[in-house]
Design goal:
The structure holds 2 protein chains of 2 kinds. By secondary structure, chain A is α+β, with helices and mostly antiparallel strands. Helix content of chain A is 45%, strand content 16%. Among the domains of chain A are: 180 residues, ATP-grasp fold, A domain (Dna Ligase, domain 1), CATH 3.30.1490; 134 residues, D-amino Acid Aminotransferase, Chain A, domain 1 (2-Layer Sandwich). Chain B is an alpha+beta fold. In chain B, 28% of the residues lie in helices and 43% in strands. In chain B, 27% of the residues are buried. The chains are: A alpha+beta, B alpha+beta. At the A-B interface, helix 3 of A face helix 2 and helix 5 of B.
Chain lengths: 732, 150
């Protein structure tokens, strides 16, 4: 059976083999529309590839590590990253490649092409995968085309596609992908046309940009928009865009470029051209017997159809099955650069200033009422920054993901997270903090009298210099045993911090993984040398952006922690006053407003009891081996320390395995004491995983109910290579 | 009568057709069975499988290398009683280390390419069972033994 078909050989019964896009292109060609020269690689080639290479079962093993519904989006992204890397590292076997090569050579010799996805489930009226699978523009040479076919196949398993398929209930086991290879048409202006508007059945819509269509499709370039009357075929309105950019073709690949001044003043289409485009859309509608979404481009005077697919007659609200949200998971480079500018130049400085301003206020001088309103005020500030954190800082982590994908595409590393090594050892605030802690522990190590004083709890005997350093530390980073969120559970003194310091002092200080700087330089060189010219410039910029994104991933929490520390300082002041009145016989009556302000803040998360082992029917249940996500390579064994509440951190002992629901950066100070890290929350880029990687500790994330299934003191083995946690004795 | 070559071919065919085997280990006299993905050497002298080092079977076979391996062709149907072939292998298990490991790993992955991440993980051990005897059961209760000179 032929696995690569020219449009003239695609028959009606081939629809499922060539996918929606491939089939529509064949019909367009047959109907006399001007379309680019194309070939379609059928689903059988995909099936043969995944069977021969073992990828079919590897993908399913990866996706079935745990129930899909229990996976956080971050875990699905990790899953997709690993799967994508499998495709990148498994070349198409020579017997399959041989069946494709001749046709590709004969049709596209010396020509640049677009390699597009054409999944059988794509472009059907009920479900639209448009934009969820990848397309690669401007690819040259048969070998490069074959490589990009594998990349398009991989995009069947992207996070967005996985989520969307899950959402609309398609069976992942049956997923397959055909690929369209199409001669690239380097148009001067391009766009999409809806023969019928989803909002008004009497109207049609055209969107157009200068340059290639890519910019419009991925949202990087804002299009001009026309609304047309279907019956009269006349323009009703034109909404001009703020024309700044266009996507242009390079020697290989494409680039977003500034639009020349003279073009920015003129709409990409004149009235006559807009009508011409609309007539084409209507002609496609007439031909396919349903309203069409047509992608087109102008090559000088020639109007070329790139693809056409049905649009549903439903309004966008009715068809909103969340696809736009899945698409929004992927931020463009341009978008991320704007985010960075705002975060670095506005938000972070404002956040630091807000913390400092609060710190300057002398709380002891406030009246009860003023203290009550100060608490409320600080709560609002804290709330405001928490919201900004979620809305602005969290999405910026996409900078790391974008870099990861570009890195893996370029290098195809064995470890799909190798790219993180290029981002680490930046000056993260939490590492500075851990360094200060290590210094304090060092002083205890060298001063037996200090150790004795700390152990006995005789605070008056503590070396004043040491106390001053601890105060400076608390001022800078807050009390470690306060959680970032929801915490009014702070200790009244520094006893917990002393305990941690004593534990650190009693053991050799852990070495951070010292990756030789030459290694890192070599890695960077390896990455950058896979690009030339313009692309190299972009790669350098992207690496820089990813580093800033990686660093912020940690720092933002530290800054947020400082703001919360100020709220807690006010609460502590209030608690002391209330305590003095109730227990120390102070005569001063406390203002009711202050009591109310403190009360209203007390919303601790409910304590989750350990998993009930005895079911009452004679069966004992015990978890033995739990599967999560591998998040830091290595193997380690030790007693479990289960963190149920922040105060449990004070109990942490050297060599224990940290078991927690979610490590927040303000908790990571115990990581240098730990032998391994296990976290309920999943993902490679969560704080626990990042900091574990910095210290070279085995780490497994995404273990559901980790803190309930594992008990304090259980012997636990962390397999950070495979993402497995074993409870009970093992041979290690 | 079947020749030695006929029987060896039968064993080979069964081993090639089956992906999974049951491995029995023991600790303190308590037998313990596990399902593993296996591959057999063409000369039938060795059977190989991969296990994580944190498992009970690894712990058991480290302290007592004697193991039994069961491979069979049953398909969970009534017809299995007359049709299925079952082979029990007894022998000694040990981890393969050093330069021997790579070629065996390639052999293993050629049969189980989907286990690449698992088999290559530093936390997993590649185990060789040196077969001493084969016990082949056919036609419900016909049992033949084959012993390997070592």
């Amino acid at each position: 059976m032929n696995w690569i078909l020219a449009p003239e050989h695609i028959r009606e019964q081939d629809g499922q083999r060539v996918g929606g896009k491939g089939y529509a292109l064949a019909l367009l060609a047959r109907g006399g529309f001007t379309v680019p020269k194309s070939l379609c690689v059928t689903c059988e080639a995909y099936q043969a590839y995944v069977s021969q290479t073992g990828l079919r079962e590897r993908i399913l093993l990866e996706l079935n590590r745990k129930a899909f519904k229990d996976m956080r989006w971050e875990e699905i992204w990790d899953c997709a990253t690993r799967i994508r890397n499998m495709f990148l590292r498994k070349p198409i076997p020579s017997d399959i490649a041989a069946l494709l090569k001749d046709a590709i050579d004969a049709t596209f010799k010396g020509k640049a092409v677009v390699v597009r996805s054409s999944a059988p489930e794509e472009d059907e009226a009920a479900s639209s995968f448009a934009g969820l699978h990848e397309s690669y523009l401007n690819v040259q040479g048969t070998d490069a085309i074959l490589k990009h076919i594998a990349k398009v196949w991989a995009s069947l398993w992207s996070d967005a596609a996985l989520l969307y398929r899950q959402e609309i209930g398609l069976d992942v086991q049956k997923s397959a992908m055909a690929v369209v290879i199409q001669e690239i048409i380097v148009g001067d202006k391009s766009g999409v046309a809806f023969s019928q508007s989803p909002n008004d059945t009497s109207q049609g819509v055209i969107e157009s940009v200068y340059g290639l269509n890519q910019g419009l499709v991925d949202g990087a370039v804002e299009p001009d928009r026309w609304i047309l009357d279907r019956r009269r075929k006349a323009i009703i309105s034109h909404m001009p865009a703020e024309r700044k950019h266009r996507v242009i073709a390079l020697e290989s690949g494409v680039r977003l470029d500034a639009l020349p001044q003279q073009l920015s003043k003129v709409p990409p289409l004149n009235t006559q051209e807009a009508r011409h485009v609309f007539e084409l859309a209507l002609k496609a509608e007439d031909y396919f017997k349903s309203p069409q979404d047509v992608e087109w481009t102008f090559r000088q005077k020639d109007l070329v159809v790139l693809q056409s697919r049905p649009i549903t007659t439903l309004s966008p609200q009715q068809v909103d099955d969340g696809r736009s949200w899945y698409l929004s998971l992927h931020r463009s480079f341009e978008n991320l650069k704007e985010m960075r500018h705002k975060i670095e130049n506005e938000l972070i400085p404002a956040m630091i200033a807000a913390g400092e301003k609060m710190a300057q206020k002398d709380l002891s001088e406030l009246s009860d009422r003023d203290l009550a309103s100060e608490i409320n005020h600080r709560w609002e500030i804290n709330q405001k920054w928490t919201n900004i954190y979620w809305e602005q800082f969290i999405p910026y982590a996409h900078g790391i993901r974008l870099f990861g994908q570009v890195y893996n595409d370029a290098i195809q590393p064995e470890d799909p997270y190798e790219f993180i090594d290029l981002l680490t050892r930046t000056e993260m605030a939490s590492l500075q903090r851990n360094q200060m802690l290590a210094d304090l522990a060092d002083r205890i190590r060298n001063m037996p009298s200090l150790e004795k004083a700390l152990r006995s709890g005789q605070t008056e005997d503590i070396d004043p210099q040491f106390s001053a350093s601890v105060d400076r530390f608390v001022e800078k980073f807050g009390d470690l045993t306060c959680a970032v969120t929801g915490g009014t559970q702070c200790q009244q003194d520094s006893q917990a911090l002393y305990q941690i310091l004593l534990e650190m002092a009693a053991h050799p200080s852990p070495e951070m993984i010292r990756r030789e700087s030459t290694d890192k330089a070599a890695l960077q060189e390896k990455f950058l040398s896979s690009f030339q010219g313009e692309q190299k410039k972009t790669a350098v910029e992207l690496l820089d952006l990813a580093r800033s994104s990686y660093q912020l991933r940690d720092d933002d929490n530290i800054y947020l922690g400082r703001i919360e520390a100020q709220l807690l300082a006010a609460v502590r002041e209030a608690s002391q006053r209330i305590d003095a009145y109730h227990h120390r016989g102070s005569n001063r009556k406390i203002d009711a407003e202050l009591i109310e302000a403190v009360k209203s803040l007390d919303h601790r998360p409910p304590f989750q009891p350990p998993y009930q082992q005895k079911s009452g029917d004679g069966f004992m249940i015990q978890a033995r081996q739990l599967i999560g996500q591998p998040a830091g390579p290595g193997l380690a064994k030790g007693p479990a320390r289960v963190i149920q509440r922040t105060a449990d951190l004070a109990e942490f002992k050297y060599g224990e395995i940290l078991i927690c629901d979610a490590v927040d950066p303000n908790m990571t100070f115990v990581v240098p004491l730990a032998a391994g890290v296990v976290e309920r929350r999943g993902g490679m880029l969560i704080h626990g995983a990042i900091i574990a990687r910095e210290y070279g500790l085995p780490c497994v994330t995404g273990i559901p109910d980790a803190t309930r299934l594992i008990q304090n003191g259980d012997e636990v083995t962390v397999d950070g290579y495979l993402g497995i946690v074993t409870i009970g004795s093992s041979e290690l | 009568m079947e020749t030695s070559a006929d029987i060896q071919n039968r064993l080979r065919n069964l081993f090639e057709s089956q992906k999974l085997a049951v491995v029995a280990t023991q600790t303190g006299g308590q037998p313990y069975t596990s399902l593993v993905a296996f591959v057999a050497a063409d000369d039938l002298r060795h059977i190989y499988f991969v296990t994580a080092r944190t498992t009970r079977k690894f712990s058991n076979l480290t302290s007592d290398s004697r193991v039994a391996v069961l491979v069979n062709s049953s398909i969970n149907q009534e017809s299995d009683f007359h049709d299925a072939i079952s082979i029990t292998v007894t022998g000694n298990a040990e981890e393969i280390k050093g330069s021997e490991r790579q070629p065996i790993l390639e052999l293993y992955l050629a049969k189980h390419p989907y286990l690449e991440d698992f088999a290559r993980s530093p936390s997993c051990a590649l185990i060789r069972v040196a077969a001493r005897s084969y016990y082949m059961v056919r036609n419900f209760q016909n049992v033949m033994e084959f012993h390997i000179d070592r």
